[in-house]
Amino acid sequence: MNVDIHESWKTQLQTELDTPYFKELTQFVTAEYKQQQCFPPENEIFNAFNSCSLNQLKVVIIGQDPYHNYNQANGLCFSVVDGVKHPPSLINIFKEIETDLGKLYPSSGNLEHWAKQGVFLLNATLTVRAHEPGSHQKRGWETFTDAVIKTISDQKENVVFLLWGGFAKKKAKLIDANKHHILLSGHPSPLSANRGYWFGNKHFSQTNKLLKEFGLVGIDW
């Protein structure tokens, strides 16, 4: 696995990349990609870091695992490759944007245009074996991505963290709430959304309101 990440991240994370656990993780992922079908494509594992530099980062969204079916995952949480059917959680994200901001439902589920505006789309685990959700968990990715969240909290200020669902909410302990703003909600998955824990959270308009208060440009969702 080639750890090719934007210089702004590399400078801050080099100590982490040099640790024994990360070297073990690298060996594990390299072997998995050789022997198994894994996602996202190997050159997109660190897409979140290369699409949104630490300098330009304004918003963080945390997912859990990459999509595990063919031609879905592109290294950005909740995002899918252009032309691919939108998974249920992404459909509910777009529906909330429709009602919150009055925007038309988009044809593409590729969220790269969010990343380029400063939305860091981080999965807690960056790789997965085909059709085996959670297959690369507890191998070191979570230790690394927790360190990433802590780095953002330490190095930046006035970042809006969107924590959706129980898993993401546990990451709040890594974030300095005195320097940053945390918005909490249920997960956009149908299980949570259909119980009333997602729709109406207005996280997209709230995020832009906060960014403008910080003197920053809002996100074109």
Please give a structural write-up.
The chain is an alpha/beta fold and 221 residues long. The chain has 9 helices and 6 strands; from the N terminus they run ααβαβααββαβαβαα. It has helices at residues 7-17, 20-35, 47-51, 88-101, 112-115, 141-155, 165-169, 190-193, 203-213; strands at 38-39, 59-63, 119-123, 128-129, 160-164, 181-185. The strands form 2 sheets. The protein has a 4-stranded parallel beta sheet. β5 (160-164), α7 and β6 (181-185) form a beta-alpha-beta unit. α1 packs across α6 (141-155). The longest helix has 16 residues, at 20-35.
Q: Report the average pLDDT across residues.
A: 97
| DSSP summary: helix tally | 9
Helical amount: 25-40%
- What are the secondary-structure elements, in order, as H or E? HHEHEHHEEHEHEHH
Strand content: 5-15%
Molecular shape:
globular
Number of strands: 6
What is the CA-based Rg, rounded? 17 Å
Strand order, sheet with most strands: 3-2-5-6
Structural class: alpha/beta
Major β-sheet, in short?
Answer: 4 strands, parallel
Distance between the termini: 32 Å
Q: Low-confidence runs (pLDDT<50, min 5 residues)? A: none
Furnish the topology, listing elements before pairings.
Layout: H1 7-17, H2 20-35, E1 38-39, H3 47-51, E2 59-63, H4 88-101, H5 112-115, E3 119-123, E4 128-129, H6 141-155, E5 160-164, H7 165-169, E6 181-185, H8 190-193, H9 203-213
Parallel strand pairs: 2-3, 2-5, 5-6
Antiparallel strand pairs: 1-4
